[in-house]
């Protein structure tokens, strides 16, 4: 499910990015704004998903289904929203345009970002390992995104245009969400309202004492790593865009 969940996200990003280029124009600032807002929404969604999975651990699959269906609904109306926004914001200052764009994109990207911690919670309950759960889910989700990038730029946009690509992404979201919902309905909670799972193995004292990096330092390093990575993405995007005459495959 998470493999196919990663596909619509990047289809949306490619199509929305090209749609919003009509508002900003194609330059490094427009790329930075779109990618930055997209990643901010994913980050906020991760925080939200983490809190929801902690508060409703027995409803994780259902929450995942709701998030996918919510993205599908937004996706279906997204192009109309963006076209309306282009007319509404015509002549507005750049900060105002960025603010309104943020409001639009933060809704679906927050839902997208919430799916990872929600599914991590579910996988940890069965595997007992946070590290392997995060790595496996992140791998398959990113793999789905990479596949979607290729399919969208090579086939979907060429054969069906932006509207068709968005519809395809929304269909994927709907199929993933509906499948997760049906799976959640099959689960039978115990008398306490929680899904029966074996107790997670307790962390040993030796493992707990082996930590050498504080949470604060880890957060700073992760933030710097993300800052560098997104800087590369924006710079490389500009290089490939100029080399390919700003075609979608870039």
Overall description:
The chain has 250 residues and is an all-alpha fold. 82% of the residues lie in helices and 0% in strands. Helix 3 (60-88) runs antiparallel to helix 4 (94-127). It is globular, with a radius of gyration of 20 Å. The two termini are 27 Å apart.
Write out key terms for the chains shown.
single chain, 250 residues, mainly alpha, 7 helices
Question: How would you sum up this structure in a few lines?
Answer:
By secondary structure, this protein is mainly alpha-helical.
Fraction of helical residues: over 70%
> Nearest-angstrom radius of gyration?
20 Å
Count of distinct strands: 0
| Averaged pLDDT | 83
Amino- and carboxy-terminal Cα gap: 27 Å
The H/E string reads HHHHHHH
Shape: globular
- Structural class, by secondary structure, is mainly alpha
| Main β sheet profile | none
The count of helical stretches stands at 7
- Provide the β-strand percentage band: under 5%
Poorly predicted parts: 195-200
